Input
Amino acid sequence: MNLPHVEFSCSLDRVRHLLRMRHGLDVSCYSESFLAQTIETRRQVTAGETLADYLDQLAENPAEAEEFADSLRISYSKFFRNPITFALLEQWILPSFLREAEKNGPSEIRVWSAGCAAGQEAYSIAILLDQMTVVSGKPLPYRIFGTDWSEACLALARNAVYSTEAVENVRWRQLREYFVGQGSSMAIASKLRTRVDFSLYDLLDKDASVPPASIYGGFNLVFCSNVLLYYRPEKQRFILDRLWRSLASGGFLVTDETERQIVESAGGFDNVAMPTALFQKNFSSHG
Ligand SMILES: C[S@@+](CC[C@H](N)C(=O)[O-])C[C@H]1O[C@@H](n2cnc3c(N)ncnc32)[C@H](O)[C@@H]1O
Output
């Protein structure tokens, strides 16, 4: 649907206003493009002929407002979702943690998957850390925290049973070592489950700067991928500032490649492996 910008901005204002007034839903944190895309998808699904038809439906039908809100909660994920980034972590970043530990004595490696969905990202990094510990023969203490604002996602993460599609990037040896078949699904082996701590945490919560379960920040590696892109610029900066503060000096941040520009323009991070979205915390450009 190609609408003049002014008309479209008015429609977005109307959607935000009516969802708040009639249904108590606040969608003001989301980016305009994400809201616009969701409106258009819902218009097509509900067979609304025009934007105005759909907005009338949204105003009058609480069930549609609920459907609309549901469409904003995107929780798609898979193991090793971006294989190149995970290859860099496996071959470069994680071994550098090990070398650091050998030089300065073992200290706990702390990883945070922020917006962890059903835990696919957190378990992917747990697999790599466990493999590295086994291969090196040196015990390396590590803790992985997975957080999400959705209890439903966290319940799935703790249950740790996945479709074959979710594990299609997992290597055969990793599947054998870290998963057990459960009917047509794959369940995470118990030795890996205990390595990840899942808890409820809203990245936009003004009162909790790090996940309470993690006690304090000091993370060596933080994932926040496929989260920033849904938010409007002030909220993206708020989240990035929070992640920056949660990282230990020299710590790394991973986002999705589609979010690279958001991180670059916020400052505070150096892109260390173009064209991936692997960043290292810096002190020079953080405002
Ligand atoms: C599209 S999934 C991405 C999952 C995973 N990071 C990945 O890249 O595959 C986005 C996840 O972020 C969560 N999320 C979105 N906004 C959040 C917020 N403000 N606080 C915590 N979690 C959030 C959603 O519930 C969802 O599970």
The CA atoms of residues 134 and 264 lie 36 Å apart. The chain has two domains: 5-72, 83-281. Residues 73-77, 81, 115, 117, 121, 148-150, 153, 202-204, 225-227 surround S-adenosylmethionine (CB under 6 Å). Residues 83-281 form a domain with the Rossmann fold fold (CATH 3.40.50.150).
